[in-house]
Q: What sequence folds into this?
């Protein structure tokens, strides 16, 4: 292995060489730089590979041939090797981005760059305190030069502030080093660390503190980091990437070395400063609209998170520090570097102008990878790091810090996803293209893929399968193909997977039911995807991500695997829901609620881990530590997915603007993921404990209120899709209510309603979606009279609404019967009343749906319109067949489910004698009802047909009008504001209470952000003063603890 | 279907036939009473028969399409279905033909079948006024059903069953056993709901004769109207019998058929006349008024009814 000292040598040597070769061709200069950096990368890379695979040992390098304290020693360990590879690689790739600058500044830039990189390498490698100071100074000076590269006013000002702040920081550090040397007699960090005792630390506190604060200031803590933000905003993207990925990494490592040297002295301070920075920077970033400044906020906040994580982990569980810190650090470095490089390509200051990134799919993919990596989504390393951190904190009782981490992460997601939404949906000038060479996206894309690979490796240790990732990336690569091919491929993949995996579910009732809904639903909805004729870019990776996430939920054996599946599903569903033309705010709202919910779930899981000591799903059973909080948090997480009232405001918009088959997926399948989660939680609760009663009571009321609010709001919608979305909220309310009763009947209805809701809602979504596609609008008052043109659609909708409303003889009546039994047997009288009222209200919107669309009068432009796509009708009629079968023989659905439920809830089951179902209260015979109905219906119909055999058929417009004659058919179609009198009477239930609540909460957050941003005055002298105050305050606060 | 008693089909057909006749006679009697109250002579008591038969044999008719057929068909299926699912006479197999198909809940929901069919059929006519009538009707019916649902909750809790036969059985013995006396609040709520569903004043804006001279009454003609008229003879009887069974002790089978029939006549006639008396005494509500009205006093009475029995339990 090559001696690590050559890292310094090559860098310094190249800098001098470049100075000598000032006059030669620029291309040669660049080539020389690249060669040097490549060599350094290879060197550090070989060490990293060697140490990780075990073929090389961590080595100390003694300069001048003497051991310390006579010489300065460097150390090439595992962390150093990996971090240096990262830093050098970033530098190498950044150089490619700096070529344009080189033309203007000639050699000086490259010299600065080499010195800068040398400094970074030195910072990471050295074990000598004073040597560290020297290298930090080198980095500072070189950075200042690089920041001011273009010599614009912004850059000069930023560079200057950087110098001032840096000077103060390193000044403090130097004084501290002097005192420390006086105290310990050595400058070697290992030696100092060896002799450090609490007594010694107390005596030499001032000196140690000054060293600590010097390093901390280099990390730009909040609120004294205005100078740091300015530099991110002003520098050219290549430099920002270097500073963010390179300097931050190196400085952070220096921080860990220095703090570690002092024992546990400053770990608490680190945690607090880090936490404050993390949350503070994220909050302040909310109002930011400039892309690079936004990335600056994010960079600084991530470093804050790292500092906090280090402080906490070193104190609480040093063995796991490396995993956590490594995961977060690598993610931050790679993602930020990538995003800064992309910001150079896109070259738009305002985040709203980033729509043009869509002209380069690889760059766009890189941006997506970066943003999801920063938000700690799977499969990225940050996901596992955050999990580890939260679990450790829970185990050690650091609940406050968990709240801080989750709150900060949530706010970060708020602004990152707002940005992504703009990039995904906002328009741009069609003549604009991304500047720079097309290959400019290669580096960020490469980094993004490295992140995925790293995350995958980390995931393997936790038992995460490679299949979902492989499928998603497979479809990303094949995205250029036509829909017909991709659809067939998707069906094949789903079919094969189901073939192998579904048999493993047999024996477990819940896995069978929900596995069936997810897998069967996936297959059915994908089948209808054949209707599209184009390429449908980005659709298939998203659907695969969503479906495989759902499958992972069912197959999960540990909480981590469950959470992984949950987040994986969220990624896919986000992209699907935001595809609609007007979906930007709704997809965003969905994502924010989803992330909030998953954080609540994570917090709940951490309490489960604390209580049980294991990560297996069995940890959810019988939590004994803060059980009310734990179970409530988890249920809140699941309620954001089932859109229970209070967490439902995203659904009408998100589903209402979604395309047909996506709406089906989202409502019929995705919502059930929340139900599945709730089942797991409810099964785990200890029903005799008092907390259970509170939780179940609240859940029951939330369920029936969702049913009522959902149904009432559906009545007043003009858009058919929004009507169905509100209806879904209502139906899920019934399911939640059923689950909360913890009775046989209740769970029977929850499970069978999950299945039948999938059936009849699927029909409605596909038909309504198909009609909206065909007519170009979902608004019902623009339709009318379609029964003549689309008879099959009409028939399907008729069957669906009869089922939904609960009118016998179709299977919806079975549902109502069971709910009724459940409410009376369980004593839920008032909830039952509200549920019944909700059921009555459902008739209104169901009628409105079918009347406004299919009955009444046809509009002129629709006179020649044909039936909807056959690819929608086939799945629809399959669903109808199943509904008819189940209506004729309800026992085929309820019997097996009831039998399996008897082990959990043996009391008050349905007793089947033949076709007759009886309970303690009543009975019904589905088959007999159906037979009677068919007999009466057929007899009456035949009588009427016979007696009417000479009837004269007339057109739709041939109606009797007294005195006045209507002009045009379309003006006589009554559909707008259909239930006006009802609105006058009960419109108060439509009041958007929940929306107002969340809106005011977010307004408050933005106001706070706006207020505290004032600390960034832009004045260098103010920043200096702030730093001094910070130093004094921190000293006083930490000294108080010593 | 091996153990299915095919006699049931005969019983069902007989029930429907007899009820049609009873309904027609009842219509005649009530028409006569209306007239005599207004100091007129009135129609002949057998006039409804003539009207119905005349309607069925009309030669000309027009049709707006297949859904147009389904309106009256659904309606009559709904009415006839309720008749045979309900135990009309307690203890008489002839009038309990398909009682074991379902309990009280089935009756409740089956009533909506007719409403749905009518709504769809009216919609198919293509008339905006049909749609207006339907929206008013649906909105009002759903509001009127709220106190009914509450009352039914109350008696289900009280009798601990949804089986109508058992509910009727529990009221036998003495007239003091009637729900009217054991649970007067529930009865009150239900009778108020009954007014709403009978669609007489003050809740008759739905098909307000003076306001909407066009729409379903005119679009549905000849045999379509005939089927609707036939339904109109049996559906009120069925609804009334439901209420009699639940709240007024039902009609038990006595030794003498004449006595049974007399009791049947008295009870259905009285309950039916309750809606007529209210109808002639009060003016019409607007739809939003009636919805809000149902959500005030009837709702409160219903809630009190539930409280009353649940505390008693």
A:
């Amino acid at each position: 292995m090559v001696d690590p000292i050559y890292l310094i040598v090559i860098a310094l040597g190249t800098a001098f060489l470049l100075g000598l070769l000032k006059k030669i061709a620029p291309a040669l200069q660049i080539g020389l730089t690249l060669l040097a950096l490549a060599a350094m990368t290879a060197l550090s890379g070989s060490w990293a590979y060697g140490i990780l695979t075990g073929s090389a040992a961590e080595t100390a390098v003694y300069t001048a041939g003497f051991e310390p304290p006579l010489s300065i020693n460097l150390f090439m360990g595992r962390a150093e090797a990996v971090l240096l590879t990262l830093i050098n690689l970033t530098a190498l790739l950044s150089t490619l981005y700096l070529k344009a600058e080189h033309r203007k500044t000639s050699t000086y830039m490259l010299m600065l760059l080499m010195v800068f990189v040398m400094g970074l390498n030195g910072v990471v490698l050295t074990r000598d305190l004073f040597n560290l100071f020297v290298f930090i100074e080198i980095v500072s000076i070189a950075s200042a030069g690089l920041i001011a590269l273009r010599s614009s006013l912004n850059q000069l000002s930023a560079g200057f502030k950087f110098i001032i702040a840096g000077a103060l920081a390193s000044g403090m550090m130097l004084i501290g080093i002097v005192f420390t040397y006086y105290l310990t007699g050595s400058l070697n960090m290992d030696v100092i660390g060896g002799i450090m005792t609490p007594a010694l630390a107390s005596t030499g506190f001032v000196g140690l503190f000054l060293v600590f604060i010097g390093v901390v200031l280099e990390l730009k803590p909040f609120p004294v980091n205005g100078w740091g933000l300015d530099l991110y905003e002003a520098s050219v993207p290549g430099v920002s990437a270097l500073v963010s990925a390179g300097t931050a990494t190196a400085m952070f490592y220096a921080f860990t070395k220095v703090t570690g040297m002092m024992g546990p002295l400053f770990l608490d301070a680190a945690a607090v400063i880090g936490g404050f920075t993390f949350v503070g920077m994220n909050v302040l970033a909310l109002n930011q609209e400039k892309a690079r400044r936004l990335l600056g906020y994010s960079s600084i906040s991530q470093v804050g998170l790292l500092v906090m994580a280090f402080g906490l982990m070193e104190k609480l569980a040093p063995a796991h520090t490396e995993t956590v810190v490594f995961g977060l650090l690598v993610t931050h470095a790679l993602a930020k570097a990538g995003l800064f490089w992309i910001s150079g390509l896109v070259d738009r200051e305002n985040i709203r102008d980033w729509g043009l990134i869509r002209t380069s799919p690889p760059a766009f993919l890189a941006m997506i990878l970066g943003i999801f990596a920063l938000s700690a989504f799977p499969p990225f390393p940050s996901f596992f790091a955050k999990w580890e951190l939260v679990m450790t904190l829970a185990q050690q009782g650091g609940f406050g810090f968990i709240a801080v981490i989750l709150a900060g992460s949530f706010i970060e997601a708020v602004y990152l996803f707002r940005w992504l939404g703009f990039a995904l949906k906002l328009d741009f000038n069609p003549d604009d293209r991304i500047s720079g060479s097309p290959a400019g996206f290669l580096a960020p894309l490469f980094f993004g893929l490295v992140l995925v690979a790293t995350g995958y490796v980390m995931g393997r240790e936790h038992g995460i399968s490679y299949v979902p990732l492989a499928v998603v990336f497979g479809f990303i690569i094949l995205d250029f193909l036509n829909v017909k091919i991709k659809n067939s491929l998707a069906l094949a993949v789903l079919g094969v997977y189901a073939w192998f995996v579904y048999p493993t579910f047999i024996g477990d009732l819940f896995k069978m039911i929900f596995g069936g809904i997810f897998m069967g639903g996936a297959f059915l909805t994908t089948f209808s995807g054949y209707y599209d004729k184009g390429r449908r870019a980005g659709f298939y990776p998203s659907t695969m991500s969503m479906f495989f996430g759902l499958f992972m939920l069912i197959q999960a054996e540990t909480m981590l695997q469950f959470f992984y599946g949950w987040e994986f599903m969220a990624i896919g569903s986000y992209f699907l829901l935001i595809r609609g033309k007007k979906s930007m705010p709704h997809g965003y709202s969905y994502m924010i609620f989803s992330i909030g919910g998953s954080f609540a779930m994570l917090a709940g899981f951490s309490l489960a881990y604390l209580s049980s000591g294991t990560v297996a799903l069995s940890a959810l059973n019988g939590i004994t530590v803060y059980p009310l909080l734990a179970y409530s948090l988890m249920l809140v997480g699941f309620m954001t997915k089932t859109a229970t009232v209070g967490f439902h405001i995203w659904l009408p918009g998100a589903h209402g603007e979604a395309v047909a088959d996506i709406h089906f997926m989202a409502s019929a399948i995705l919502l059930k993921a929340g139900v599945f989660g709730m089942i797991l939680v409810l099964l785990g609760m200890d029903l005799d404990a008092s907390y259970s009663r509170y939780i179940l009571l609240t859940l029951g009321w939330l369920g029936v209120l969702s049913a009522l609010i959902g149904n009432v709001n559906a009545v007043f919608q003009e858009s058919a899709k929004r009507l169905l979305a509100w209806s879904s909220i209502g139906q899920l309310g019934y399911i939640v209510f059923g689950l909360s009763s913890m009775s046989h009947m209740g769970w029977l209805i929850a499970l069978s309603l999950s299945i039948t809701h999938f059936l009849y809602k699927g029909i409605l979504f596909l038909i309504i979606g198909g009609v909206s596609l065909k007519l170009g609008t979902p608004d019902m008052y623009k339709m009318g009279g379609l029964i003549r043109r689309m008879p099959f659609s009409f028939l399907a909708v008729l069957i669906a609404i009869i089922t939904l409303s609960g009118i016998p003889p179709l299977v919806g009546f079975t549902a109502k019967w069971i709910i009724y039994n459940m409410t009376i047997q369980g004593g839920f009288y008032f909830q039952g009343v509200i549920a019944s009222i909700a059921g009555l209200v459902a008739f209104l919107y169901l009628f409105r749906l079918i009347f406004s669309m299919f009955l009444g009068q046809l509009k002129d432009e629709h006179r020649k319109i044909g039936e909807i796509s056959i690819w929608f009708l086939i799945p629809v009629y399959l669903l109808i067949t199943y509904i008819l079968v189940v209506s004729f023989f309800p026992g085929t659905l309820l019997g097996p489910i009831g039998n399996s439920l008897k082990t959990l809830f043996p009391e008050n089951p349905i007793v089947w004698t033949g076709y007759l179902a009886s309970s303690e209260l009543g009975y019904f015979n589905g088959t007999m009802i159906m037979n009677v109905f068919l007999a009466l219906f057929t007899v009456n119909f035949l009588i009427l047909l016979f007696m009417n055999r000479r009837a004269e058929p007339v057109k739709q417009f041939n109606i009797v009008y007294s005195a006045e004659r209507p002009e045009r058919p379309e003006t006589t179609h009554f559909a707008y504001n259909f239930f006006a009198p009802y609105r006058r009477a009960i419109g108060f239930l439509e009041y958007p209470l929940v929306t107002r609540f969340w809106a005011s909460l977010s307004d408050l957050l933005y106001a706070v952000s706006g207020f505290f941003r004032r600390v960034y005055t832009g004045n260098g002298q103010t920043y200096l003063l702030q730093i001094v105050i910070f130093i004094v305050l921190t000293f006083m606060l930490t000294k108080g603890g010593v | 279907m091996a153990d299915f008693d095919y006699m049931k089909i005969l019983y069902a057909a007989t029930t429907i036939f007899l009820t049609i006749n009873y309904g027609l006679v009842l219509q005649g009697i009530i028409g006569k009473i209306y007239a005599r109250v207004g100091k007129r002579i009135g129609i002949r008591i057998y006039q409804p028969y003539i009207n119905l038969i005349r309607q069925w044999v009309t030669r000309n008719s027009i049709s707006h399409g297949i859904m147009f057929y389904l309106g009256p068909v659904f309606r009559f299926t709904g009415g006839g279905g309720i008749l045979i699912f309900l135990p009309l006479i307690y203890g008489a197999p002839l009038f309990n033909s398909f009682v074991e198909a379902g309990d009280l809940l089935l009756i409740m929901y089956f009533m909506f079948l007719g409403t749905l069919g009518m709504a769809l059929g009216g919609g198919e006519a293509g008339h905006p006024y049909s749609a207006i009538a339907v929206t008013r009707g649906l909105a009002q019916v759903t509001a009127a059903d709220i106190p009914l649902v509450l009352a039914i909750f109350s008696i289900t809790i009280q009798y601990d069953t949804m089986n109508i036969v058992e509910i009727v059985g529990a009221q036998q013995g003495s007239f003091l056993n009637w729900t009217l006396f054991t649970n007067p609040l529930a009865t009150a709520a239900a009778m108020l709901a009954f007014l709403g569903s009978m669609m007489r004043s003050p809740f008759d804006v739905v098909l307000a004769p003076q306001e909407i001279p066009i729409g379903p009454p005119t679009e549905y003609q000849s045999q379509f109207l005939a089927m609707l008229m036939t339904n109109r003879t049996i559906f009120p009887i069925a609804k009334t019998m439901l209420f009699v069974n639940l709240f007024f002790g039902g009609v038990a089978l006595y030794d003498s058929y004449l006595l049974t029939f007399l009791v049947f006549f008295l009870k259905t006639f009285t309950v039916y006349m309750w809606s007529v008396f209210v109808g002639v005494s009060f003016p019409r509500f607007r739809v939003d008024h009636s919805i809000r009205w149902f959500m005030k006093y009837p709702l409160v009475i219903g809630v009190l009814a539930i409280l009353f029995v649940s505390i008693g339990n």
